[in-house]
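User:
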Amino acid sequence: MDIIVCVKRVPFTQEVDLEIDPELKDIDREDLAYVINDWDHYAIEAAVRLQEERGGTVTAVTLGTEEDEEVLRRCLAMGADRAFRIDPGERRLDGAGVARILAKVIGPLPHDLILTGVQAEDDNQGLVGIMMAEILGLNHAAVVTGLEAGEGELLVRCELEGGVDERSKIRLPALLTVQTGLNEPRYVSIMGIKKAAKKPLEVVELADLGLEETELAPRTIIEEVYLPPETGGAEMITGDPAQVAETLLSLLKEKGVRAS
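Assistant: Predicted structure:
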């Protein structure tokens, strides 16, 4: 089974006081540390496990600068066989543009299965995987929380709304977007990192893909990024149970909440 995994390097924003950049189009990323996108971490682990079970190859692909090769090396250390980095130059892309670029590179490569994370931690849009599946004409499933390989098909469990799961069969070739918790990503050892340095990592220039300007023009334009306004915080209600209940009901009425 030939598997391709799309990964992304994202800023680590937990426990950090974020600031907005001067153009008001993004957060200020200059002093932030970067990591592999959490959802993609589970996707590469799923790919390597399928390879160990079924044989074949695992290829990691990312869109980014030379610094983004860090996540590709991690994928190689986890067990991927080769990696591709697509260099977009200075171009600002939206989800549709990213999907078209990835599809252009991945389309000619041998693939039975393409895995992506459900979404990226930096924009949380969750667009690229499903858009790429549509461009490539692939069967696809989203928010996958369980995965079993069969002959020419996969049995997948997907997370639906309201805590409901769905089990279904999907014929290969296919694309899946992976939810966190699908597996337990393996520890990357120093020896694995050293071996990864010897595996092939190819760089593809965006200009060499032959995509038209109209295909790359953003369809979604960010007007402004801003921090949410500060609120007054929680209000503590004190008193005996009857007083607390009366105060709570009064506050709910003020907020327009009505009992059914």
